[in-house]
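Might you be able to review the protein record set out just below?
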Amino acid sequence: MMCHVLLSSIVGMGHHRLIMSRTERLFRLMDALRHLPPPVTAAQLGQELGVSERTLYRDIEVLRGQGAVIDGAAGYGYRLIEDSSLPPQSFAEDEIEALVLGLREVAALGDPALAKAARRAHAKLRARLPERQAHRLRHAVLTAHRFQPPLAPTVDAAALRKACWDEHTVTFAYSDKHGQDTRRDVRPLSILLMDRSHCLLAWCCLREDFRAFRLDRMTDLEVTGTSFRPCRVPLLREFQEKLRAETKLSGDAF
């Protein structure tokens, strides 16, 4: 009788490990579908997860049955389509630490609206995670603190970010490092956090070239509503390549 109970216990433990292994594999499959360039073939996914293509096909159907919208078929490759019916996302322990560090860094260094958004995002994440992961989020090892935070922007940084997304030109008064005042009309591309200040990367209509403007030297910001869509992404790539080339020549890292 004791042997029978022991055998049943061992079988049950093995079954539990099998279920956990499959659950972990499904989460890993979701992660692979998210970060691999689509369409991703079953062979690529199998190599990423270390399983056979046959297993991949079954797991794809399981995910579809749970509500994941996955486009594609065997022999053609797969593409994950994001929607609200996707299964809950899980995080590895290091991923939780990375999220906490990033959100705390934004809370410490971002403009007021962005810092507040980071604190809200942290609270939402804590509320949505399973209890064990939420506990790790609450008591994460990593934190962020700056003794010299960046200078506060003197314009509405949230409005500037929206102008970047909407691809609308903006105009503002600007005082350069020599104290010279000018009025600039620019195409806003991105906001970059430097050592002591937030900088707007933009195409300057006055200089007809790329320029970086410190947000703590800007005043009287106006969003003109004039669209420069769809030029933002190619312009930003060109600016970034220019910065990389310049920093490479100077020996600095970008």
The chain has three domains: 2-81, 93-138, 157-250. DSSP finds eight helices and seven strands in the chain. The CA atoms of residues 9 and 174 lie 74 Å apart.
